Amino acid sequence: MSAGQRRTIRVAIILLACAFAAFIYLSATEPQGAAGTVLHRGNGPEPESLDPHKSRSIQAADVLRDIGEGLIGYSPDGELIAAAAEKWEISEDGRQYDFWLRPAARWSNGDTVLAEHFVFSFRRLVNPETAAFYAQALADIENAAEIIAGNKAIDGLAVEAPEKFHLRIRLRNATPYFLGLLTHPSAFPVHPASVGQYGDAFAKAGKLISNGAYKLDSWELGSVIHLSRNVYYWNNAGTAIDKVNHYVTPEPQVELNRYRAGELDITATVPPEAFAALRQGRPEELRVAAYLGVYYYGLNVTRAPFKDNPALRQALSMAIDREVLTEKIIGRGEQPAYSWVPPGVINYQAIRLPYADMTPAERHAGARRLYKESGYGENNPLEVEIRYNTSDTHQRIALAIQSMWRETLGFETTLINEEFQVLLANMRNREITQVFRSSWTGDYNDAHTFLQVLQGGNPSNMSGYVSEEYDSLMRRAAEQTDLSRRRLYLEEAERVLLADHPVIPIYFYVSKHLVKPRVRGWGDNVLDYHYSQHLSIAE
Amino acid sequence: MLRFALLRLLWAIPTLLLVIVLAFLMVHAAPGGPFDAERALPPEIEANIARAYHLDEALPQQFARYLGGVLRGDFGPSYRYRDYSVSELIGNAIPVSMKLGALAMALAVLVGISLGTLAALRQNSALDRLMMGLAMTGISIPVFVIAPLFILFFAVKLQWLPASWSGSTSAWRLLLPVVALALPQIAYIARLTRASMIEVLGSDFIRTARAQGLGTAAIIRYHAMKPAMLPVLSYMGPAIAAILTGSVVVEEIFGIPGVGQFFVRGALNRDYTLVLGIVIFYAALVILLNLIVDVLYGFLDPRIRHR
Q: Using CB atoms, which residue from A19, A51, A148 is nearest to B44?
C-alpha cells in the first residue's frame, strides 16, 4: 500500500468519525419553544386524523376536544354545558332543537363562528362522499339516514340557519340523548373556507383552522402533536395552559417510563403489571374512576350449543365468580358487572341480573341445575371454545373462567387467542365463534348507547341476538318524549336482554391515569374526558 | 464491473415485482380489513368507505390500480391516516430511520473492528476472553431486553438522557437507541474481525513481513487489515438487514417516528397501502445495499474483479 493510499484510509476514518458527529449535531432540531406553561399529555396510540369527520379513535377525539368545540360540551365532572352555543330550546314534541351560538365564538384565524358553518359541517358528515365513520352519529336528524344511503341530496338534511347565530335542527324522533350526541367530535364544525381551499387536506398542520381553545401548531407523525392557545377563542381568558403536547404513546409500559423520567404530566393509561406498585408508591398521582364501558363474553346465539338454549347461557354466566376476577385476577378497581348498562348513566337505573345478590354457593347450585336442564352432565359434558384477542389480561381472565366452569359445571374449555383483526373477522362471520371476548364503551352518557348494540340488525351485535320483544321495547322507548316513561321502556328492555343471556357481562371498566401533582383541575368522570382548557399547572 | 452492476440492477426489477405481488396477496389474505373495529360500521357507511377506497372492486382490478399508481410513483392514500398519502408517511419517516440506522452502523463498524483487532492481537489473553465473553453476551441479549434496561437506568434512575424521542429535542435523544441498536452488531463484527484477523496473521505473507522487520502496527495497517476485512464486508448485507429489523423494535421502544414503527402499526391496523409501500421500500433498500456490498467486494478482492 502506498503512502497515498494510507492517507486516503486515514482521511476516510476521520471523515467517518466526523459524519458520526455531524449526524448527532444535525439531529438537534428546533430549540424549545418560547416560555409559557406547557402540558405534556400521553395520548396512547396515534390519532388517525384531526378531520372530525374522518377520525373515529378515542385518541383523535381527545385531541379534537382540545382544538374544536361543538354546540354542547362537558364540564370537568361530566355534566353537559353550553359550548359554541350559549343557549338552546327544545320543542314540545322533542323533535325540534333551536340553538343560539355565542356571537363571541371565533375560529383560530379570527373568523366568527356562524350557524351556517354548522349546516355545512353536518352536511359534510352525512355526505356519502366524505365516507365518515361516524356519519351515523347524526342519523337521528330528519333525512340523514337517506342521505347516508345515497338516496337523497345532502341539502335535504333538516339542519338550517334562519339567522346568523341561530341554528335549527329537526329530528326524525324525539331523541333525548341528542344533546349528548352533539358533544361528539363528529358534530364539531369544520371551517368551510379552508375545506373549500384545501379539500381533504384541510386538517393538516399549517392548514387546519379550528374553533376550540387550542389550535394545531404541528404534528410530528408517530411522535407528538403540538397545540397552542387559540387567542381568538371566546373563553381564552378562562384558559390557563398556553401549550399542550399530545404524545404518541402506544405502549403503556413505555409511557410509564416516560412519566417516571419526567417527560409526561398525564398518562393515557397505566400498565396492568405496574398497577399494584403504583398504588403503593404514588397513590396521590394514580387516578382511577368508573368508566362507561363493559367487558363481556359474547355467546354466538346463531349456532349450537348456544342457539335456542338460554338455560345453558345462564348457567355459564352464573358459574362465573365476577368478584374473584375483579379482585384477584385484575385488581385495578374494576367493578363486577351484573348488568349490561354500567352504573353512572344519567336518567337510568341499571337492572341487575337476578342472581347478583346470591352467595357463590347459591349461584353455583343454580348454575349446575340449569346446566343439567339444558341437557348436559357428567356423561355428556359441554365442549366449548373461548376466543379472545392476544393480551395478558384477556388471557388471565379466560384461564380463570375456564377453571371456574371446570370446577362448577365440570366441562373443559378450549382457549384460543387470536390477533385482534382475526377475532373481529370471526366475530362478524358468526361461523366458528362460540364464546368470544369483547367490550363496549359508551359514546354519550345514555343507556341507549349500550342497549342499541343488541338490537337485531345492529352491525356490532356480534352475538347475533334477535328478540322481537327487545326490539319493540327499544322502538317504543325511542318514541317517548317523556324521559321517565322512556326510562321505563329502556329498563324493561334491559330486563329482557339480561334474561336471555346473549352476552355475559363480566366487569365494568375504570379509567386509569397517572397525573402529576402539579396538574390542577383534573376531574374524574365516567366518559373519561379531560379537556386541557379545564386544567392548569401549579409552578 | 459496470456490466456486472447494471445486470444486477436489471435483475432488481422482476425481484421487486415479485415482492409487490406476494405482499399484495398476503395483506389482502390476512383476516379483517383496514376499517374493521369492535364498533362495527353500519352497512351503508361501510359501503361508502369501500367505494371511496375502491375496496369494492375485484382483487385483480385493485391490484392493477395499485401497480399503475406505483409505476407513477403514487403509493396511494393511507387507509388509517386518512389525511396522508403513503409517500408522505414514508417520506417523513425515512430521514429519521436513516439517521438511526446509519449511526448505529457506523458505531458498530468502528467499535466492532477495533475491538476485534485488539482481541486478535492479544489472542487467548484475559483481555481477549473478556471481550469475547462480552461479545457473546451482546449477541445473545435481544434488543427488546437491553433497550428498556437502558431507559430504566439512564432515563428513569439517573435522568441523564431522555426516555424517548419526543422527550427532548437535543441530539442526545439518539444516543440510547443508537447504542441499543448497534450493540449486537458490535459484538458480531468484533468476533468476525478477531477470527479473520487471527487467520490472516498466521499466514505466510504476514510471516514474511515480520521477517523483514516490520512492527505489529505496520503489519496490521498495511498487510493484514485489507484481507481480514473481507468476511466483515460480506457480513455488511446481513448486518444492514439486522439493523433494519432491529430498528422496528428500537423505534417502538423509544417512540421514534421511523419507518419501522409505521410498519408495525400498519400491519396491525391492516393499513394495506402503508404496509405495501414500506415492503417495497425495504425490498428496494436491501437490493440496493447488497449491490453496493458486491461492488465494494470487487474493489477489496481483485480475484472477483477480474473474474
A: A148
* Cβ–Cβ below 8 Å for A258 and B30: no
CA–CA distance, A424 with B38 (Å, rounded to integer): 7
Taking the mean position of all CA atoms in its chain, how far away is CA B268?
A: 21
Q: How many separate domains does chain B show? A: 1
Å between B206 CA and nearest CA of chain A:
14
In chain A, what are the helix, strand and coil shares in percent, each to the nearest 5?
35, 20, 45
CATH 3.30.230.70 fits A38-246+515-537, yes or no: no
- The tens digit of pLDDT for each residue in A80-96 reads 899 999 999 999 888 99
Pairing of strands A383-389, A435-441: parallel
State which residues form the domain around B130: 98-251
The model's pTM is 0.86
Say whether residue A63 is in contact with chain B using an 8 A CB cutoff. Answer: no
- Cβ distance B265 to A135 less than 8 Å, yes or no, reads no
Collapsed DSSP state (helix, strand, coil) of residue A224: strand
Q: Where are the domains of chain A?
A: 38-246+515-537, 293-510
CATH number for the domain spanning B217: value is 1.10.3720.10
Cis peptide before A305 (omega within 30 of 0): yes
* Superfamily grouping for domain A293-510: Dipeptide-binding Protein; Domain 3 (3.10.105.10)
Query: In chain A, which stretches have pLDDT less than 70?
Result: 1-35
When scoring B110, B165, B166 by the number of chain A Cβ atoms within 10 A, the one with the most, hence best to mutate, is B166
